[in-house]
Amino acid sequence: MRALVAAAIGLAAAFALVLTVTAIGAPPGETSPRPLLTTVPGPKK
């Protein structure tokens, strides 16, 4: 029973966090026009 209560409290906290972030919205700004490197660059040819 205690595990069920703990799970319900955790789920409610996560849901409240999602609602808070949704209500606040994304911060203002813009993304970088240059792409991020996701791999190690190879030798230049």
Give the secondary structure arrangement, pairings included.
Elements: H1 2-24
Q: How far do the termini sit from each other?
A: 65 Å
Mean pLDDT: 85
The whole-angstrom Rg is: 21 Å
SS element count, helices: 1
Helix content: 40-55%
Question: Which series of helices and strands comes N to C?
Answer: H
Class based on secondary structure composition and strand pairing: mainly alpha
Shape descriptor: elongated
The fraction of residues in strands falls at under 5%
Total E-strand runs: 0
Low-confidence stretches: none
Major β-sheet annotation: none
Protein name: SPW_0924 family protein
InterPro entries: SPW_0924-like (IPR048001)
Region (Disordered): 26-45
List keywords for this structure.
about 45 residues; mainly alpha; 1 helix; elongated
What does the model show?
The protein has 45 residues and is mainly alpha-helical. The protein has 1 helix and no strands. The longest helix has 23 residues. The model has no long low-confidence stretch (mean pLDDT 85).
Short description:
51% of the residues lie in helices and 0% in strands.
